Amino acid sequence: MPEARKLVLAMAEPKERRRFLLGWSAWRRAHQRVAARCRAAKHAARYVLGREKSPEVAAIAPEGAKLTDEQWKRVKPILPPQRGRIGRPPNDHRIVLGGILWVARTGSSWREMPEEYGKWETAYRRHELWLGQGLWWRILQVLGEEDLPGPATKKPN
Q: Which of 25, 60, 81, 92 is least crowded, fewest Cβ atoms below 10 Å from its Cβ?
């Protein structure tokens, strides 16, 4: 509707200005069509890529990264407290930690993390936070997985 309004108002402009406005409108609509095609292709690629995972990753069951109750009892005391009730509901440390461990144990990319562990962005951000705080290394020590391959598991200096 705003575009139609601009075109109607352009008709009342002088000839040169009207030619410019109509040309600009045509260019803008063409640009929007290209952008829409690119967005559609991007979404289609995400859909296809989300369903087709490498055979090695697909063969590893997500259950392999779930924390046992015993492991959780050992790790829970060193984790920071969950956020309070103000704002967004917090993402459970146990679920997010399971996702981080899944990525570390499988060597997969963050984007391939199963949805049952929540959003990969959340797990990645929390991993980076804990890594910066030196907490990730302590978690690996408590779990006895210091030699775990995966995302940034090097010892701190």
A: 81
Domain span at 77: 55-143
The reply to whether 149 falls in a domain is no
DSSP line for 57-100: HHHS-GGGGPPPHHHHHHHGGGSPPPP-SSSSPPPPHHHHHHHH
Q: What does residue 86 show for φ and ψ, rounded to 5 degrees?
A: -90, 135
Angle at 71 between CA 66 and CA 72, to 5 degrees: 80
pLDDT, tens only, 7-35: 888 888 898 998 998 888 889 889 988 88
The answer on 81 and 18 residing in a single domain is no
User: Is residue 40 located within the same domain as residue 84?
Assistant: no
Residue bearing the bigger pLDDT, 75 or 107: 75
Token look-up 């929540």 returns 118
Higher pLDDT, 64 or 3: 3
47 and 87 part of one domain? no
Cβ neighbours of residue 29 under 8 Å, at least 6 residues apart? 3
Indicate the pTM of the whole model: 0.56
The amino acid occupying position 107 is: G
Instruction: Give the model confidence (pLDDT) of 50-89 as tens digits.
Output: 554 444 444 444 555 677 888 889 988 998 887 767 777 7
Structural domains of the chain, count: 2
